[in-house]
Design brief:
Elements: E1 11-12, E2 15-23, E3 27-33, E4 39-45, H1 47-50, H2 53-67, E5 77-81, E6 88-92, H3 99-106, H4 111-130, E7 143-146, E8 149-152, H5 181-184, H6 191-207, H7 217-226, H8 239-245, H9 256-265, H10 285-288, H11 303-315, H12 349-363, H13 367-375, E9 386-393, H14 400-419, E10 426-433, H15 438-450, E11 454-458, E12 464-465, H16 467-475, E13 479-482, E14 487-488, E15 498-500, H17 509-519, E16 524-530, H18 534-546, E17 553-559, H19 566-575, E18 580-584, H20 588-600, E19 606-610, H21 616-622, E20 630-633, H22 645-655, H23 663-682, H24 690-694, E21 699-700, E22 705-706, E23 722-727, E24 730-736
Helix pairs in contact: 4-6, 4-9, 6-8, 11-12, 12-13, 14-23, 15-16, 19-20, 20-21
Biased composition (Pro residues): 335-346
Biased composition (Gly residues): 266-280
Pfam families: Peripla_BP_6, Pkinase
């Protein structure tokens, strides 16, 4: 760390700068502190680069890509601003040495440590590649050593395969000696180039030198492309795998997941080392690679002392200027003290920096790190206790976009809660990824139930809430708050500790009835019930059949399965001179075919459907015929919701993007849990009493007030169903159906 110069900013976005961590041709990296006291590494791009609009667009795209990368062995992106005069990107600060520093100071690592290190780095890359990204600069300097394992950093150049680099077209991007032959020759790159780089790192860690020698960049690049690596000194057990990683042909290299599995297969105590094989059809080595490094393998001489020394150096930094240059201020909802309350006291620098340094090391490590954090919060007398909320999400599977939205909304809610005065406890998150897989979801439920620190769970985050997961949490009497699921396979059980904060898809119909009665009155309605989705079609249709529609003629038309029924349905609409057509089904592609058929018949009346039919397939398939359609959904657009303005601003500043679907609802879900937990603590109830307290709690959320019917224990739907109208190929938020 170096002191700030007179030219360095004293504030970058919501962060106050403390010291310089490094500088290069692209910009400067600062050690900074957030308003909540957490330390961050903030990379600020030089203004001359930002003057290029194409650069800003690339930076924005790559910052958003980096923000999607999650996992125990990658350092998380905390926020970014691509629109600032000098764009910046913030990541968690890890006060540990790089692998290059450690090996350079103390020499090669033991073979068992290299194997465990490689397995976790491969696990990190497998997560990156599963998200459609590549790192492109895996090297010892971009691997930091924390107390529980390595951290892969510097995703400033992470991108979708084939995306434009931040450097000029065809330029070599990476570090000579650790980049793949296809990178060295400026050819097309993909995930295999990261595997090659990982092989180089393993050689360096095992021998203390890179496999293609040292010296000038041109010579190293030539050897990388044309010569075989120097593998003398690589442990025999690692040699076959390292050789496979360093194959010149990308397609011949193993994947990152295969590297992870092969390294875990020979680790002490792993299944491949004489233990049991796959459990439930899934190789348990993947889970082992997510666990902290075993102390026997991670007892690196001097590492704890060096981390402590660097943390102490951070503690010794002078306070930043208390009056930094003015910049945009973010105030989360309800963050202001109550009327008459004194201002929030400023914590001491030592307490803030200690929490930031330890938290940055531990929180970057996934669920195990959260356990460590909660253990350390049993401070001196008077310190607030910590209550943990589990997040059960799909973060790497088909529903990862919704899972990430949940995670971001929950993280903002936890930060907001912990920033307020007068709270009875602090909040922490334990995050578990089920990858959208049924068997893994049950294992996640078992893990969260077994952790006595977890008072409630937010999730699962999938579209369908499965009965076996509901029952697994019910058996453990662990309250679950479900935000996004539109369908459930579970029966209603009054004794289950389950709280669903949204109306299911089958309950969206009344909003469409209201729209056609009050907002766009229709005297003749054609109900097109889709036989390809009979259950949802019948449920939505029942909303119209059961409604008392005075002066309205309701005509039903079945839409048969297959591709031949859309034209007849459209012609029926014109034959009965319908004022409105209702699509009673949940298929976006079939809704698009109906929209196109209606447009071809010249139908200009009102067209409505339920949210499940509103998706990319509808917008693409219908084209211009999609414009004017109105859909009922259970989520709001926080970016245009006045009550969520503060949340949206905070989300943009922390994550560099507006809130995605379900992020604001997840924020409210955490707020509901915290409010109910405060009342539960006051009443002397424990974990089992929280579910009963939840349905007796009314929480004024940023999307809407969450309240429940005492008799049915179900959430009240007032202002909980929202309408969207497609305009110019994009859905535009209209607001709660009762206010449209």
């Amino acid at each position: 760390m170096r002191p700030l110069t007179s030219q360095d900013p004293r504030a970058v976005g919501p962060y106050r700068t403390l010291a310089r961590l490094g500088a290069g041709g692209m910009g400067v990296v600062y050690l900074a502190r957030s308003a909540g006291g957490a330390l961050a590494a903030v990379k600020v791009i030089r203004a001359e680069h930002a003057a290029d609009p194409r650069f800003r667009a690339r930076f924005r795209r790559e910052a958003e890509a980096a923000g999607r990368i999650t996992g125990p062995w990658v350092v998380p992106v905390l926020g970014a601003d691509s629109e600032a005069r000098e764009p910046w990107l913030a990541t968690a600060f890890v006060p540990g040495p790089s692998l290059g520093e450690a090996v350079g100071a103390r020499g090669a690592l033991p073979a068992a440590t290299v194997r465990a290190l490689g397995a976790r780095l491969a696990a990190a890359l497998a997560t990156v590649h599963a998200g459609g990204l590549i790192h492109r600069d895996v090297k010892p300097g971009n691997i930091l050593l924390a107390l529980d394992g390595p951290r892969l950093i510097d995703f400033g150049i992470a991108r979708h395969p084939g995306a434009t680099a931040l450097t000029a077209t065809d330029a070599v991007l990476g570090t000579p000696g650790y980049l793949a032959p296809e990178q060295a020759s400026a050819g097309p790159v993909g995930p295999a180039c990261d595997v090659f780089s990982l092989g180089c790192v393993l050689v360096y860690a095992a021998t203390g030198r890179p496999p293609f020698g040292a010296g000038g960049a041109a010579g190293v690049l030539f050897r990388t492309v044309h010569e075989e690596p120097d593998l003398d000194g690589v442990p025999p057990a690692l040699l076959p795998l390292v050789t496979a990683c360093l194959t010149k042909t990308p397609d011949a290299r193993p994947t990152a997941g295969e590297v992870r599995d092969r390294l875990m297969g020979g680790a002490p105590g792993s299944p491949g080392a004489g233990g049991a094989g796959a459990v439930g059809g899934r190789d348990p080595r993947e889970a082992l690679a997510r666990e902290p490094m075993p102390p026997a393998l991670w007892a690196l001489p001097g590492l704890p002392a060096l981390i402590a020394e660097r943390s102490a150096a951070a503690l010794a930094l002078p306070d930043p200027d208390p009056n930094p240059a003015p910049g945009p201020q973010v105030l989360l909802p309800d963050a202001t003290p109550p009327d008459g309350a004194p201002p929030t006291p400023t914590p001491t620098r030592r307490r803030l920096l200690t929490a930031g340094a330890v938290g940055a090391v531990l929180l970057a490590g996934g669920s195990a790190a959260v356990w460590n954090t909660t253990r350390r919060r049993t401070g001196p007398s008077g310190a607030l206790p910590t209550r943990t909320i589990g997040l059960h999400a799909d973060l790497t599977g088909p529903g990862r976009a919704t899972g990430l939205a949940h995670r971001r909304g929950a993280e903002l809610a936890v930060a907001d809660h912990n920033s307020r005065t007068g709270q009875a406890f602090r909040l922490a998150l334990r995050i578990e990824d089920d990858a959208g897989e049924a068997a893994r979801a049950l294992r996640v439920a078992d893990q969260l139930v077994a952790d006595s620190r977890v008072m409630a769970v937010l999730g699962p985050t999938g579209d369908v809430l499965p009965e076996d997961v509901v029952l697994r949490y019910g058996k453990g009497r662990l309250t679950t708050v479900v935000v996004a699921a539109g369908v459930t396979t579970a029966d209603s059980h009054a004794n289950l500790p389950l709280c669903v904060t949204r109306p299911y898809d089958r309950n969206l119909g009344p909003a469409l009835v209201s729209y056609l009665v009050h907002s766009r009155p229709a005297g003749r309605i054609l109900l097109v019930q889709d036989a390809a989705d009979p259950e949802r079609g019948w449920q939505l249709g029942s909303s119209f059949r059961d409604a008392t529609l005075t002066g309205v003629t309701l005509t039903e038309h079945p839409l048969p399965e297959g591709e031949s029924g859309f034209g007849p349905a459209a012609r029926r609409a014109t034959a009965v001179r319908a004022d409105a057509v209702v699509y009673a089904g949940g298929s976006p592609s079939r809704a698009a075919r109906l929209a196109a058929a209606l447009a071809a018949e010249g139908f200009t009346g009102t067209r409505v459907g339920a949210g499940p039919a509103l998706g990319p397939a509808f917008l693409r398939g219908a084209g211009r015929a999609a414009d004017g359609w109105v859909f009922a959904e259970a989520y709001a657009d926080a970016a245009v919701l006045p009550s969520a303005e503060g949340f949206t601003a905070a989300h943009r500043r922390r994550f560099g993007a507006p809130p995605a679907t379900w992020a604001a609802e997840a924020y409210d879900g955490v707020g509901l849990i915290a409010r109910a937990a405060a009342a539960t603590s006051a009443g002397g109830e424990g974990r089992e009493g929280l579910a009963q307290r939840l349905v007796r709690t009314e929480h004024p959320g940023i999307v809407r007030t969450l309240a429940f019917s005492p008799s049915t224990r179900r959430v009240r739907y007032e202002n909980g169903i929202f309408l969207y109208r497609v305009e110019r190929g994009r859905p535009r938020f209209l607001g709660p159906y009762g206010e449209v």
